[in-house]
């Protein structure tokens, strides 16, 4: 017998073998849960953080060790030929890394870095050396000799280490202060000294890391004379005492400054530090302290800092042109919307003082490229139309060309394009095929590192000329003998794609994996996966790993639909869920459910649903608003009440709680608990500092008060994601056992 923890106590359940359908035996899966999460990764040796050396002679990248996919090393490949070779072995530099500090742990959690070893690196501008932060210190690696010099060896943990633009200094954060070290003399200099407690310098506060994708709080000018430095005062932020319980049984109360929706944010100021004079100038950013410091960029001549400032409700973006000598600033460009501003990293300062910029201030809110003069005025609308530019890759100023990534042909396929800077012609695709491309160009925009994948092809990385012609492979990652996935390739299932219509006629895209040995004359249980929220797209033609394969090989149909509000369809498409999360997304997920039930090979009585984070929230909201329509649901790390979640995310989409009381009330899981009928399996990490554990604890308590039956699993020491091979196998074994029990028993 196997015992499972339920909301009302311990109940015995039969073993998995007894849960198989009695009429037709389920096919034997080719892929086990254990192998799916073991090393080496089944995706294959997929390099990451690919970059050209400054002189363009090499490509460098991070790659996981074969015996442990969690540990990364630095590799290189010469452009003119030869096989890739390991440049820096993380275990040679540091045999055993010390424990991460809380600040570094949080930074990695925000940046979704789950690996160890070398997780970041940076070339110097001359191409002579690479900076490798590791073990809380910094190594300076000489490229020709391979010698690694430890820049500092201190008991303190240094974070956010970088080489200055001209290669003269290493800058870093220590004890919430900003330091620099002169690489020639070894002399260390404290730029700030006030940091400590609730004050930090050069660091990004929690919501900037988590929701604005800003992970730093300092920015060098190109000539190394100035540094823009953020000062953060967290004293206004509400302190939340939360319990963290670790796997060793220890427990501690953590004081976390966590700004819940409607409460005060940190005060963030920006200063310009002049390295020559040693003086600070405070930057004039706004006439209120209630704003978000979003981005900082510099002009090529270092005479202007461009600072992006968001108002609290994130409907107005003010780009300020700052004089670094005085801190005085003026509005360079103002963008406003009645939906919300989506930030990018597309501010590109050009040699002549003009700027390339992408904006959603277009019909339909589709992001497109603009060329703006030094004073902010529009020179050229470079691209336009009912499709989305993803990001600017590089600018060939000599030939007047812009290379970018976008979704011009379909929201499911991402390609690289080139367009004249003067907007005189339509963009031309330089990549082809159904799938997803990404690219990184060399300094002269003559070649790029391109990575491609599709649902049956794990990421392949090559070196390409700027017309898309492949020069050579960097990592072909072919599914041939010796590849980790080779023995499972024959059983691999390619998804089907299609479209459905929302209630208002909007086109919705779906994908569906049919089971191994699919027989259209049989009925199959279904698991519907969802995310549902903004800034996410789950239906696409890229490599999607092995999770869908695990379900399909176990006799399930695996189905996903991207509802209104999801990513890469334009801001107007996202805006459907404004001020009413958990509404139109649910309607569209139920369109998918109705479609599934119309299919003759679907067992309409045995359809389950699952999701994580916003998807966990959506699992709850969908099953509660459609009681009895699903046979089972798995909800991981869900938000249950948006007043428990943080300001920058929640208020962007829901407005301030005082201005949208009814919207917050109806978007709460607790407003719909009368519809609780679908059996639920609830999962949460007990050290989650993003969607704090209180979200699930409150739900546990309410369901118990109602004497409702539910199952739960908590993971000690785990944050917003469940990490590690053993825990992953444990969690997915339990999830499959839950679905098997509820979706296959009655077949």
Secondary-structure blueprint:
Layout: E1 2-6, E2 9-13, H1 33-36, E3 48-52, E4 58-65, E5 68-78, E6 85-88, H2 90-93, H3 102-110, E7 116-117, E8 122-123, E9 129-134, E10 137-142, E11 148-152, E12 159-163, E13 169-174, E14 177-182, E15 188-190, E16 199-201, H4 206-211, E17 218-220, E18 226-233, E19 239-245, E20 251-257, E21 267-274, E22 280-282, E23 291-298, E24 305-311, E25 316-322, E26 329-336, E27 348-349, E28 355-359, E29 368-372, E30 378-381, E31 388-396, E32 401-410, E33 413-420, E34 428-429, E35 436-441, E36 447-454, E37 457-465, E38 470-475, H5 486-489, E39 496-501, E40 507-513, E41 524-529, H6 547-552, E42 557-561, H7 571-574, H8 584-598, E43 602-612, H9 614-625, E44 632-636, H10 647-654, H11 661-666, E45 680-685, H12 694-705, E46 711-715, H13 725-743
Helix pairs in contact: 8-9
In short, what is this structure?
This protein is mainly beta and 747 residues long. It is 15% helix and 37% strand.
Structure in words:
The chain is mainly β and about 750 residues long. The chain has a domain at about 1-5 and about 25-35 and about 490-745: Alpha/Beta hydrolase fold, catalytic domain (Rossmann fold), CATH 3.40.50.1820. Helix content is about 15%, strand content about 35%. The chain is built from 13 helices and 46 strands. The protein has an eight-stranded mixed β-sheet with strand order 39-40-42-41-43-44-45-46, sandwiched between helices. Strands 3, 4, 5, 6 and 7 form a five-stranded mixed β-sheet that branches. Strands 16, 17, 18, 21 and 22 form a five-stranded antiparallel β-sheet that branches. It is globular. The chain starts with a strand and ends with a helix. The relative contact order is 0.10.
């Amino acid at each position: 017998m196997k015992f499972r923890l339920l909301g009302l106590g311990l109940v015995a359940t039969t073993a998995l073998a007894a849960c198989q359908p009695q009429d037709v035996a389920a096919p034997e899966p080719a892929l086990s849960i254990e192998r799916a999460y073991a090393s080496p990764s089944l995706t294959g040796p997929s390099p990451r953080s690919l970059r050209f050396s400054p002189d363009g002679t090499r490509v460098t990248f991070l790659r996981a060790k074969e015996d442990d996919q969690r540990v990364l090393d630095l590799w290189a490949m010469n452009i003119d030929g030869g096989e890739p070779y390991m440049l820096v072995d993380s275990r040679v530099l540091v045999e055993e890394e010390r424990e991460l500090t809380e600040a570094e742990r949080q930074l990695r959690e925000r940046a979704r870095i789950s690996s160890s070893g070398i997780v970041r690196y940076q070339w110097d501008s001359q191409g002579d050396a690479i900076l490798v932060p590791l073990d809380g210190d910094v190594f300076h690696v000489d490229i020709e000799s391979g010698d690694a010099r430890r820049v500092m060896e201190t008991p303190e943990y240094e974070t956010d280490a970088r080489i200055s633009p001209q290669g003269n200094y290493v800058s870093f954060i220590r004890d919430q202060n900003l330091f620099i070290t002169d690489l020639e003399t070894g002399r260390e200099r404290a730029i700030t000294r006030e940091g400590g407690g609730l004050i930090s310098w050069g660091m990004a506060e929690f919501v900037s890391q988590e929701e604005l994708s800003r992970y730093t709080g300092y920015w060098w000018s190109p000539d190394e004379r100035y540094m823009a430095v953020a000062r953060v005062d967290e004293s206004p932020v509400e302190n939340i005492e939360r319990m963290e319980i670790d796997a060793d049984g220890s427990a501690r109360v953590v004081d976390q400054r966590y700004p819940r929706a409607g409460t005060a944010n940190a005060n963030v100021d920006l200063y310009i530090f002049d390295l020559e004079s040693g003086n600070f100038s405070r930057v004039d950013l706004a006439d209120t302290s209630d704003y978000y410091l979003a981005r900082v960029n510099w002009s090529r001549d270092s005479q202007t800092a461009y600072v992006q400032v968001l108002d609290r409700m994130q409907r107005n973006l003010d780009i300020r042109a700052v004089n670094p000598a005085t801190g005085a600033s003026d509005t360079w460009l103002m963008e406003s919307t009645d939906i919300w501003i989506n930030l990018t990293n597309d501010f590109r300062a050009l040699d002549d003082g003009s700027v390339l910029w992408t904006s959603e201030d277009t019909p339909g809110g589709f992001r497109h490229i603009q060329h703006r003069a030094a004073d902010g005025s529009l020179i050229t609308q470079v691209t336009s139309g009912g499709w989305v530019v993803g990001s600017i890759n590089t600018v060939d100023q000599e030939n007047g060309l812009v290379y970018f990534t976008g979704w011009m042909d379909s929201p499911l396929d991402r390609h690289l394009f080139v367009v004249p800077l003067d907007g005189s012609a339509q963009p031309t695709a330089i990549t082809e095929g159904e799938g997803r491309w990404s690219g990184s160009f060399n300094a002269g925009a003559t070649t790029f590192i391109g990575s491609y994948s599709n649902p049956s092809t794990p990421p392949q990385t090559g070196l390409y000329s700027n017309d898309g012609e492949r020069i050579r492979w960097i990592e072909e990652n072919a599914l041939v003998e010796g590849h980790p996935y080779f023995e499972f390739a024959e059983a691999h299932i390619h998804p089907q794609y299609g479209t459905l219509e929302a209630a208002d006629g909007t086109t919705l895209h779906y994908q569906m994996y049919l089971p191994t040995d699919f027989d259209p004359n049989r009925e199959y249980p279904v698991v519907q996966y969802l995310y549902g929220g903004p800034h996410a797209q789950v239906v696409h033609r890229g490599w999607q790993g092995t999770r869908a394969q695990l379900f399909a090989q176990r006799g399930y149909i695996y189905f996903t639909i991207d509802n209104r509000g999801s990513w890469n369809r334009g801001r107007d498409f996202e805006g459907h869920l404004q001020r009413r999360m958990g509404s139109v997304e649910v309607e569209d997920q139920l369109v998918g459910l109705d479609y599934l039930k119309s299919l003759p090979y679907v067992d309409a009585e045995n359809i389950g649903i699952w999701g994580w984070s916003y998807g966990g929230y959506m699992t709850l909201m969908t099953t509660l608003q459609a009681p009895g329509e699903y046979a089972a649901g798995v909800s991981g790390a869900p938000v249950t009440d948006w007043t428990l979640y943080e300001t920058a995310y929640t208020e962007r989409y829901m407005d301030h709680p005082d201005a949208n009381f009814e919207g917050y009330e109806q978007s709460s899981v607790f407003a719909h608990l009368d519809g609780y009928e679908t059996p639920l399996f609830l999962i949460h990490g007990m050290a989650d500092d993003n969607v704090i554990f209180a979200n699930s604890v409150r739900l546990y308590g309410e369901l118990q008060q109602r004497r409702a039956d539910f199952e739960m699993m908590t993971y000690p020491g785990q944050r917003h994601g469940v990490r590690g091979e053993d825990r992953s196998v444990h969690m997915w074994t339990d999830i499959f056992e839950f679905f098997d029990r509820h979706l296959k028993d009655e077949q």
